[in-house]
TrEMBL record:
GO terms assigned for molecular function: [heparan sulfate]-glucosamine 3-sulfotransferase activity
Biased composition (Low complexity): 76-88
Name this polypeptide is given: Sulfotransferase
Gene that encodes the chain: LOC114590716
Subcellular localization(s) per the UniProt record: Endomembrane system; Golgi apparatus membrane
EC number assigned by the record: 2.8.2.-
Organism: Podarcis muralis (Wall lizard)
């Protein structure tokens, strides 16, 4: 029986599910071969559900809760490396073998920032064979902490010795309780923050919200408490997130600055291989991801992978990335630049890095 079952798995991997051991398929509770013969994808899904390690993933409602990713939509081409089964078109054999390894709490977390480029960074890192990352944003340290570390660990992909487990949830950076909670899990956790010009980030944040709620007020009206006096409304999340120095102070109460890597969202576009080199060094990984992995997509306006993990095809982030920003009153843009300047200067001093936003 075992030999027949392995034969079925091998045949499915070769695209011959329809003719492989139909009697065994019936014994396993599958539909009759006549109904399955022209639908190998359906059988692949069946085998995925039965593959070891397929339990403990986020529910559809939780997966659709990604603040930075427009409900994790990437145009249907998300080559996940260890997320929910639906994230990655793995072959049945690959899924069967994917049960090896151990689920571990993450040794590294991308903690922010929203609309900074966290999804791009995670997708690029997945190319590395020693990086395993959960696909959807777990939101454990801000929304699901009461579920406990066992629940959190069960979301993680299985890893072998020498591989790093990662996750990314951009809202952690602005969540007051997150630093203490991550420190309680492990004081040695490596943290990555992708930052971007706070003015551009705010406009991108607004653009995402506008795409979902076309009737919201204008960017200009939301920016000010009082347009006449020019007083900025720092209670608006699109503005508040960009005060990076303020949020970083909270993290430095629990983690040394050397344990946090700050990735430039701008350089992630202009020089992805260079930024990925820094990230690989920070994580203690061999520099495998290089220039040869990227090409610049002129239509989208950002770099894409020549070959994504687990695929031989080029891979770009989906239609929700690279939206055209609305035209914003330049007077408002200038006022915002003046507002952020002192916070930016402090952030440069704290991190020891000038991001060149002024």
């Amino acid at each position: 029986m075992l030999a027949l079952w392995l034969c079925v798995l091998y045949s499915c991997a070769a695209g011959a599910c329809a003719s492989a051991a139909p009697g065994l398929l019936l014994l396993r509770g599958s539909a009759p071969p006549a109904r399955r013969a022209h639908n190998p994808a359906a059988l692949s899904k069946l085998l995925l559900l039965r593959a070891p390690g397929s339990k403990g993933q986020l529910s559809p409602e939780q997966e659709n809760n990604d603040e930075d990713d427009d409900e994790d939509d990437d145009g249907g081409n998300n080559n996940s490396n260890g997320g929910a089964a639906a994230d990655s078109p793995l072959s049945p054999i690959s899924s069967f073998l994917n049960g090896s390894g151990t689920k571990r709490l993450p040794q590294a977390v991308i903690i922010g920032v929203k609309k900074g480029g966290t999804r791009a960074l995670l997708e690029f890192l997945r190319v590395h064979p020693d990086v395993r990352a959960v696909g959807a944003e777990p939101h454990f340290f801000d929304r699901n902490y009461e579920r406990g570390l066992t629940w959190y660990r069960d979301l993680m992909p299985r890893t072998l010795d020498g591989q790093i487990t990662m996750e990314k949830t951009p809202s952690y950076f602005v969540t007051k309780e997150a630093p203490a909670r991550i420190s309680a899990m492990s004081k040695g956790t490596k943290l990555i923050v992708v930052v971007r010009d706070p003015v551009t980030r705010a406009i991108s944040d607004y653009t995402q919200t506008l795409s979902k709620k076309p009737d919201i007020p204008t960017f200009e009206s939301l920016t000010f408490k009082n347009r006449t006096t020019g007083l900025i409304d720092t209670s608006w999340s699109a503005i508040q997130i960009g005060i990076y120095a303020k949020h970083l102070e909270n993290w430095l109460l629990y983690f040394p600055i050397g344990q946090i890597l700050f990735v430039s969202g701008e350089r992630l576009i202009s020089d992805p291989a260079g930024e990925l080199g820094r990230v690989q060094d920070f994580l203690g990984l061999k520099r495998i991801i290089t220039d040869k992995h990227f090409y610049f997509n002129k239509t989208k306006g950002f770099p894409c992978l020549k070959k994504a993990e687990g695929s031989s095809k080029p891979h770009c982030l989906g239609k929700t990335k690279g939206r055209t920003h609305p035209n914003i009153d330049q007077e408002v843009v200038q006022r915002l630049r003046e507002f952020y300047r002192p916070f930016n200067m402090k952030f440069y001093q704290m991190t020891g890095h000038d991001f060149g936003w002024d």
